[in-house]
Amino acid sequence: FQRIPAASLAPGLAALGEGVDALAVRAAKEQAQSDLAQKRVTLDANGNPATNDSPFPILGNAGAEYQRVTDAGALAELGTRQRQDLADIRAANPDPQAFQKASQDYLEKQAAKLPPALGNAVFREGSSIAAQHYANAVNEKATQDVAISKQALLTRVNDGEARLIQLALNGQSGQPDYQ
Question: Mean pLDDT, the chain, as a whole number?
Fold first, then answer.
């Protein structure tokens, strides 16, 4: 057997390692997507992604990719939950200012329970949804205010009309109130 210098093996082994790492990253991504689809990745009590019955430990770049994909899936799940929670908060708080305070409190509590990067993303997404609800609440309040003002004006006109008719029927059409 001929001895091969270690220096000539190093580049080949490095390339092999990079190739295996690339395959592992792709497999980790596929595994994460599968775990999300099969509901093996859930949210724990604090809203953090937790893998149930993971078939194998994932380390290195593959582990980072698996974590990235499961974090994205958890963010999507939190977003769905958040939309429903904010709709419930909106229903419970028809006044725009009350909704704004309640939604801000909710979002701050949700963000505080999560790791900073995920918490910030959840807070930003929730703030966007809350802003839409707030705008709708303001519009609904303005529509209600216009309807109330219109009704008040119509009532005043009708009352004035009724008063004029009463004056005319009583023969008091010469009165200053009639003119």
Answer: 85
* Three-state secondary structure readout of the chain: CCCCCHHHHHHHHHHHHHHHHHHHHHHHHHHHHHHHHCCCEEECCCCCEEECCCCCCCCHHHHHHHHHHHHHHHHHHHHHHHHHHHHHHHHHCCCHHHHHHHHHHHHHHHHHHCCHHHHHHHHHHHHHHHHHHHHHHHHHHHHHHHHHHHHHHHHHHHHHHHHHHHHHHCCCCCCCCCC
Q: What sign has the CA pseudo-torsion 90, 94, 100, 103?
A: negative
Are 74 and 43 a contacting pair, CB within 8 Å? yes
12-34: per-residue pLDDT in tens? 888 888 888 888 889 889 888 88
Contacts of 29 (CB under 8 A, 6+ apart): 65, 66, 69
Name the residue with tokens 């839409």: 132
Tokens describing residue 39: 């509901």
Each residue of 120-161: pLDDT tens digit?
A: 888 999 999 999 999 999 999 999 999 999 999 999 999 988
More confident residue, 87 or 36: 87
Q: Distance between CA atoms of 128 and 51, rounded to whole angstroms?
A: 29
